[in-house]
Design brief:
Shape: flat
Helix content: over 70%
Mean pLDDT: 85
Structural class: mainly alpha
Number of strands: 2
Number of helices: 10
């Protein structure tokens, strides 16, 4: 999971305690909190979720610079939503510029979406950034996630970097042959060839990988050799998470 969420530069007792929690429990808590936050509408509940995520971030010992770097693309998109939604949502106009109205309801909707996105990403960073890909797939299998979905996740994470390097090789070959991108038909056609060749090479690599796996006895599932076990760190974490989620649910729907 570190390849997806980035390196987890953490230190201290708090981060060590979080890493000792069973990965299955961390996945369940992260998924439950993400669902509750995504369905919540009250800003008080969203603020509570944001406060919990920030507290977890402070206790996890993750590098603030790395976290901000991960949040930057998300918040650029959220900024666009905050700007565009008030222009396309009916409601009480805060600012009117000719036929365009900057509505209060649209602004609140955009702000709620932005808070939800940041809370969910922070939760995933705090709970799952330190979980490596193999452990994640192992935990998902223990949680009875369908094998095809688990395999798809593992292969995607494993071969994204391989495909990236393949794309760099093709781009470098184009530059060696004198290609310089311009706004013309030749450039568009060349990029089309690049995408097509990348797809062809990806398909060819997938065939070779499947043949190699079958030669090693692969029959559609990974066998779990090591198994997780609940420890003394899991009970208080599970209890605290359950109480927190219950408070959010009661506050939102009562």
């Amino acid at each position: 999971m570190q390849q997806v969420l980035g390196p987890a530069h953490s230190s201290g007792c708090s981060s060590a305690c979080i890493e000792r929690v069973d990965p299955r429990l961390r996945i369940v808590v992260a998924a439950a909190l993400s669902v509750v936050v995504a369905m919540a509408d009250r800003f008080e509940v969203l603020g509570l979720g944001l406060a919990a995520a920030l507290l977890g971030l402070a206790l996890s010992g993750l590098s603030l610079r790395d976290v901000l770097r991960r949040l930057l693309p998300l918040n650029v998109l959220m900024l666009l939503l905050v700007v565009l939604l008030p222009l396309t949502t009916d409601g009480v106009p805060l600012i009117a510029i000719g036929p365009l109205g900057f509505s209060r309801e649209g602004l609140l909707l955009g702000a709620a979406i932005a808070v939800k996105g940041n809370v969910i990403v922070l939760t995933l960073l705090v709970l799952l950034a330190a979980v490596d890909t193999t452990t994640l797939g192992h935990a998902l299998s223990h949680l009875r996630v369908p094998d095809k979905l688990t395999h798809l996740l593992l292969f995607t994470v494993r071969y994204l970097d391989v495909l990236h390097h393949e794309q760099l090789r093709l781009r470098w070959a184009m530059k060696v042959r004198g290609f310089r991108p311009r706004m013309d038909r030749h450039t568009y056609r060349t990029y089309g060839y690049l995408v097509g060749m990348l797809l062809v090479r990806s398909f060819d690599r997938s065939e070779r990988i499947m043949a190699a796996m079958k030669c090693r006895g692969f029959q559609g599932r990974f066998y779990l050799l090591d198994h997780f076990a609940f420890s003394r760190f899991d009970v208080p974490f599970a209890a605290a998470s359950f109480v927190f989620l219950l408070v959010m649910v009661v506050w939102e729907w009562t």
